[in-house]
Design a protein that fits this description.
alpha/beta; seven-stranded antiparallel beta sheet; seven-stranded mixed beta sheet; 20% helix
Length: 274
Amino acid sequence: MVNIKAKIISNTPVAREHSRLVLEVPEMVKESQPGQFMHIRVHEGLNPLLRRPFSIHRIVHPNTRAPVYQVEILYKIRGRGTELLAKRKKGEFLDVIGPLGKGFPLPLEADTSVPRTYLLVAGGIGIAPLLFLAEKLAEFKIQNSKLKIIAFVGLKTKNYLLCEKELRSLCDEVKISTEDGSLGFKGLVSDLLKDFLLTVDSEPFTLYSAGPILMLQEIKKIANMFKILCFGSLEENIACGLGGCFGCVVKTTEGYKRVCKEGPVFNLEEIIWE
């Protein structure tokens, strides 16, 4: 974890109500894992007072697409904090703490003898951490030809579509649902996932998900129905980001846990929603 003044490389709109922020960051972030987050002070003044948490969308290593380490943040403009962030300009600096939290568990090794399919399910801005995850999983495909990655992306309408090109370059399949039927499957991404699982043979699946709470609740039910190991990134209001204020706790089978410290990624089987 580092606390730095990060230089803004770019901060540009990418789709309806969404922007991508690129920051210059130190080498220490190279160990970041998908599902971790950055805690950013979006404004120099006292309003808003608290930092805002943003999932790490991608880490850019030197000699790939940049001369220095960069972190990409994909965010939706939906309140005062993100409205102020969207106004920050190239060349300005942001006070950033990160990487924070616990990310998605990755394969310990690429076992070439075992076929396995990884299901990535994103609802709305939940796509932000899952692109980083898809990149990491794609690295395992180099050693294991039996490994498959299938992404399920749920949107209100096609105007909110993000990262399609990048996902298709990394995943074996990308399935899209829209609530209004303007693109792909008409309905919720949870229904799209369930329909898919009903049509395939049983095999080792691991499911990763990120999105609104109601979506994660449905994903948990589906994972239980098909006996699939399922991890989800929870969306909560995070204050300190360091586990000290206990303002972001969720109820689990092992008591209350902090989303910013023990999460934001949890095995959904342990989450208790009342």
